[in-house]
Amino acid sequence: MSTAEIVPIPRSLHLGRAGRPVRAVVATLSDGTPYYAPYGEIVVDGDVVQCHLCGHWFRSVLAHLPSHGWNQQLYRETFGLELRASLEGRATREQRARVFRRRRRQELAVQTGCREGQRWVRSGALAQAAAAAARGRPQPEQRRRKTLATLAAVTSEARAAGTRRATEARLREAASRIRRTRSPARPSVAAGVPVRTARANSSTAADSASRSPSAGATMSPRR
Predict the structure, then answer these.
(1) What CA–CA distance (Å, rounded) separates 173 from 167?
(2) Using an 8 Å Cβ cutoff, are 79 and 39 in contact?
(3) Which of 74, 138, 199, 211 has the fewest CB atoms inside 10 Å of its own CB, making it the most exposed?
């Protein structure tokens, strides 16, 4: 495109709050709704975040969403955002953290909830519940991109080492199963007496019987 073809946009149209530029329409949803931030991304500029639906900047997009008639769940699902990804600027997040720390020191209900959450984490119940909740649910685009970026950063040497460790772990598990199936059964216990003890008692009784007179022999009378 030549310089003569560039049409300047009025300042009132391309600058949002605090003089930050409003991005052009990135794409449209299936119902024709335009959006102004990339799908699967949260655009943050210091203390403000850009709204996908209007392109303007806010300290908290969460507080702004009702003006569009949207809620947080619909917004995240529509634009491929993770459930735990913050939709607030840095200053707002820090303020919320300070308020929560104060409530944790002062409010019994918050303290009880924190202890219960820690118990879930230590027992592994939280990870199991998260896995069950995510089962069958499509992965958000934001998470998919993070996963791909992480995998791309792994070197071939590290990937090969991980494969070797996984193979060795499978072999050890298989060997352990084979040993368990081939090991002889432990002696059973009947009436509270181990088999070996019962056998030893029977051998002792047999030896005593062989040394004693036969049960069928008659005793000669004394003279």
Answers:
(1) 10
(2) yes
(3) 211
